[in-house]
Amino acid sequence: MAFSAAIVATLASSEQCSAHHRFRLKHVLHCFVGAERSPAVSFSSLFNCAVLQKMTEAELYSVYKGVHVPTHLHPPESLKYCEEFTFRPDDILIITYPKSGTTWMQEVVPLIVNEGDLTPVLTVPNWDRVPWLEEHRAILLNLEQRPSPRIFATHFHHHMMSESYFKTKPRVLYVMRNPKDVFTSSYHYYGMASYLVNPGTPDEFMEKFLDGKIMFGSWFDHVKSWISAEEKESILYIFYEEMITDLKGSVEKIAKFLGKSPSQDVTEKIADHCVFRNMKQNKMSNFSLVPEEYMDQKKSEFMRKGIAGDWNNLLTKAQEQRFNAVYKDKMKDVTFKFMWD
Predict the structure, then answer these.
(1) Residue 24 falls within a domain, yes or no?
(2) What's the pTM?
(3) Domain region containing 134
(4) Which residues are catalytic?
(5) Domain Sulfotransferase, which positions (predicted)?
């Protein structure tokens, strides 16, 4: 409940929120505070996301360091907190472009660090277990007090990282996924999340995606920024597709990078739990705790399929050709080898 209440509070205080919307949101926030004292009050009766659905793109998004971010999840005070955050050398950062395997890694990495103990992933929501540093929740979690190694997530481009990051060089797990599948997953996600702009038709959303006019900007810029990072000795590059193909091998690869040597039994236990069909049942990771009015999983599940190549079920031949042409142009000078190539 605190997750949703914090979102409403952020929205209500946003300068981009109209006075009418602000009044309605503060009323919803008042209900949330009361509900935290009275568990009998349901989420559904409290969170009126019709407010979000009527907000314009300008009200929903702001531009930070050149990229679009959802204002209610990333208010100015949260972005400032992220900018001023002090890293430790043994911190672990899961870095992704959205819809590239973040949730998956938020499950895998804590299990490796905790030597296969399932307790954290079965009892703590993933947004608190491995918080996004740029999101509003981070301020509330006393992250400075967490014991090492701390595990965080971020969708930031390389140039958006804080001064402390570049000085400290914490360990980074950078996960990449075929951009056509990222586009496909994003299209369904935008259609079920009331805090994001409706995607429109696949053609309309594809143009926004290719132009980087969506949450966290251009996939091309994001990937190129991280594969060209100078601090490569502290970065492990891993593909969503290799996790699908060989999850056990991926667990071993990540563990080695983190200086861990789990036994075969522990490795197999982690891989078995993190198989998509099993992880999808974990209510601490599948976002089923979020109210339906905020994420309508009847429209599309947050954890949908967990496969490679689902873009074939969405893109027409003409759309595929358009996507390929833009990809070829934007990545023409990149020598990095991607699994999907």
Answers:
(1) no
(2) 0.82
(3) 56-330
(4) 155
(5) 89-334
